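Q: Structure tokens for this one, please.
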Amino acid sequence: MAKTNPFDFIQQVRSEAAKVTWPTRKETMITTAMVFVMVLVACLFFFVADQAMSWVVRTVLLGFGG
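A: Here is the predicted structure, written as tokens:
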């Protein structure tokens, strides 16, 4: 593998960075909102699942009569 001097390396990095399609502000805001919504959905799901499993374990350990 050929060695590249630092100046050529920086030029190559700048060239590759120029090829990147950067998201617009609107796309970034929409994606961020979607992440927050999915985190909320996951939080609610795991809360409900935890409560259900807790109820099952309590019912089994303490008996059905409570």
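A few notes: Residues 8 and 14 are 10 Å apart (CA to CA). The mean pLDDT is 92.
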